[in-house]
Records
---
Amino acid sequence: MVPGVNESSSDELLASLLTLSDVYLTGYHAAHMGRVAAGKTVTVVGDGAVGLSAVLVSHQLGAERIILMGRHKERTDLGREFGATDVVAERGEKGISEVMDLTGGEGSHVVLEAVGYMPAYEQAYGVVRPGGVISRVGVPQYEDAPVGFGSLFGKNATLTGGPAPVRAYIDDAIPRVLSGEINPGRVFDKAVRLDDVAEGYRAMNDRSALKVIVKP
C-alpha cells in the first residue's frame, strides 16, 4: 500500500511504476531515438504494450499527428485515449497507402516500429517520408537485411533504435508517474498469480490479453 491512497489507486500506481522497467520506457526510447517533437507526424507500427506506450510518449512530446497501425480494436481504442489521432487497421501495401493518404502523400516524419517482424519493417519503410527517421525497438526476428534496406539511402532516411537503456530515463519518469501526469499502467489488462504465469503468457500469445501483471 502507498500512504494516502486507497487500494485501487495503489494498484494503478504500482502497475504504472512496473512499466518503467520495460514497456513504457521502451516506447520512450523509440520516440527519443526517433526525435519525436512538437509539430511532427508520427506513425507507430504495432498495437502491443510497447507500441501503445510509444503513442503515449509521442503525445507527451507534442507530436501533431499520431497514426497507430494496429487491428485489435480494444488496443487501438486505448491508443486513441493515449493520444493517437488516427488508426490504420490495414497491413502491407493497403496499410501503407492509407497512411500516405492521411499524410497527403508525404509520409511520416518519424516511424516507431514496435513489432520486430519483417512486414512491420517494410511498413515502416513504406510510410517514412524522405529525410525521416525509422526507430526500431521491436527485436528483429530476421537475420537478412530487409527488402529496401539499402534504399534508405535514396530516401535520405535514418534507421535507429535498439534495446532500451531504461535506467537512463527512469529518474525523469518516476516523478511523472507519482504525480499522476502519466498512467502507462493501463496497458495491464490481466492479472495472474505466480502459479499461473504460463497461462499469462498464453493469453498474451493468443491476443486475449495485452499485458499481464503477476501478483503474489
---
Amino acid sequence: MAQLKPYFLEDQLEAGCDEAGRGCLAGPVVAAAVILPKGWNHNLLNDSKKLNESQRLKVREAILSDVEHFAIGACTHHEIDKMNILKASFLAMHKALGKLNITPDCILVDGNRFIPYLKIAHQCVIGGDGIYRSIAAASILAKTHRDQIMQDLHEEFPEYGWNSNKGYPTKKHRAAIAEIGPSPYHRSSFTLLSKQLEFDV
C-alpha cells in the first residue's frame, strides 16, 4: 500500500479533513476531521477511492478503536440545494471540525479550496487523501459513514440502487429517475437526467 506522510509540519497538531458525496445526485455530503496519534498508521491506510469496501471498513474499525480525536459533519440535500455543493462541502467540514474535542494547530484539507475555519491555519493539498495519513483517514471515515446512510436510504427507496451506486449518477440510477421520478432525497439543484434519457422518456 501507499507510504503516506505522517504530517505536513512536525510538532504541530494537525487535523486531516475530507468529504464524500460531492458528485452524488442524492443524499448528503459528509465530511470527517481526524487528528491521528503521533506515529499512528495502518497497512491499508490510503485514499478511500483506492480501497474496496472491505478494506475501507477494516481501516475504519482501526480508526474508531485507536484514534481519540475524530468527528463527522454532514449537510443534507436541502442544505446543498440552498447554498450549492461547494459551500455545503466546506460547511460539512466546518461541522466536523467543530465537533472535535480538541483544537488543532492546522487543518490539512483535501483539494485546492477551503473557507477558513475560525482562525486556525489551513493547508489545501490536491490529492491529499493519497499523500497524508490524516486526510486519508478522514476520507475513509467520511466515505464509510456516507455509504451507511445511503444503504439505509436504499431500504426506503430500493428502486434507485443506492446500495450499489451510493447515489452517484450511474446509468441504472438515472434510468430509475427517468422511470419513476426523483425521490425526496434527490438534490433538486443537480442535473438528475442526462440529455439522452430526457429524449428517451
---
Amino acid sequence: MMISVWQLAPALRMGNTVVMKPSEYTPLSVLALAEVLNTVLPADVLHVVPGGREVGEALAAHQGIDKVMFTGSTATGKAIIRSSADTVKRLTLELGGNDAGIVLPDTDPKAAAQDLFWGAFINTGQTCAALKRLYVHEDIYDDVCAALTEVAEQMPMGVGLDENNVLGPLQNKAQYDIVAKLVQAA
C-alpha cells in the first residue's frame, strides 16, 4: 500500500488520472485503498485493474497510457520496457532493491538493535526498502549479533490472522522459495 500511495499521490496531485495494476499476489489492499480514495475523488480519476502478467503487458503497451511507474523485479522491469517500446512511454522503474545498512564502531548495539531489526523485517521483510545487507564493524560484530538475536527471540511471529503476532508468514510460495535459497546460501 505504501508503494501505491507513493506512486498515485503525486500523479493525482498533478491532475492526472491513474490506472493501477497491483501485484497479482496482493490486490486486495490496493482495491480497498482505491475504494476509500474514490469516495472523495471525481468519477473515473482512479481505477484499479487487478490481474497477472498479461494485464501488465496490455497496460504497458496501451496507447492511452503516457507513463508507467513500477516497483519490483528486474525481470518484470525489462518486460515493461519491451511492452512499452512501441509507444515510447515515460518509465520510472525501481528494480531489485538491495539496501544496505552500516553499523560503525561507536554504535551502541542494544540501542540500535530494534531499528536494525525493523529495517530488515518491516512487513516481514517484504518491501523494496527493507534492509537486505548489514555491514558491522568487527569491533562490535558479536554484540550486534547478540542484540539482534535478543530482539528476534522476543518477536511474536506466526499466522498473520492471529492479532498477537507482530510478524506473519511470507506472502506466497514463490517468495518463500527465494528466501529459503538465500538462507541456504548464507
